[in-house]
Design brief:
176 residues; alpha/beta; 2,3-Dihydroxybiphenyl 1,2-Dioxygenase, domain 1; ten-stranded mixed sheet; 38% strand; binds fe (ii) ion
Length: 176
């Protein structure tokens, strides 16, 4: 039986200093780092959780140069076919779809990004993996993995790296 969105899965925020936010969540809130992007020693993204989910929250470096912005909230769907059906329904309804359906390398999640009328980005998400190992070591992605930002299903558009809410004028775009 095809079903719609089931629950909130995770939230993704933009930050000027990913490392500062990552350390705060680890040191003050008990989060564990699950995956990260590091370019030449600079933290570009961090995926953390307090549950077995691969991420409850993620921080990505804001390509606009701003700080403390919202990137997206993700809703869980039970399987791939539910997400593909949702894509058809959203397309027919005229919803603005930014990217997907496609699959991330980071988190192994299947994704679809869309915008609600207020301009916030939402994600439909399924797949991923669960972590139960107490000695889990974070997966680290580097500059050499840039072509793996999407595992399959096309590239992420520039807006994915620079658009967040509230909207700001870009002062730089150096996420890549
Ligand atoms: Fe997400």
């Amino acid at each position: 039986m095809a079903r719609g969105t089931r629950r909130i899965d995770h939230v993704n925020l933009l930050a000027a200093d990913v490392g500062a936010n990552r350390r705060f969540l680890e040191d003050s809130l008990g989060f564990r780092l699950r995956e990260q992007i590091v370019h030449s020693g600079r933290e570009m993204g961090a995926w953390l959780s307090v549950t077995p989910l691969v991420h409850d929250i993620a921080y990505m470096r804001d390509g606009s140069g701003a700080d403390g912005r919202f990137h997206h909230v993700a809703f869980w769907m039970d399987d791939y076919s539910d997400l593909l059906r949702a894509a058809d329904i959203l397309r027919e309804a005229g919803t603005r779809i930014e990217a997907g359906p496609a699959k991330h390398a980071i988190t192994n999640g299947l994704f679809l990004y869309l915008y609600e009328p207020g301009g916030n980005r939402l994600e439909l998400f399924t797949g991923g993996y669960l972590i139960f190992a107490p000695d889990w070591r974070p997966v680290t992605w580097t500059e050499e993995d840039r072509d793996l930002r999407v595992w399959w299903g096309g590239e992420l558009p520039e807006s994915f790296f620079t658009y967040g809410t509230p909207v700001v004028e870009p002062v730089k775009a150096d996420l890549r």
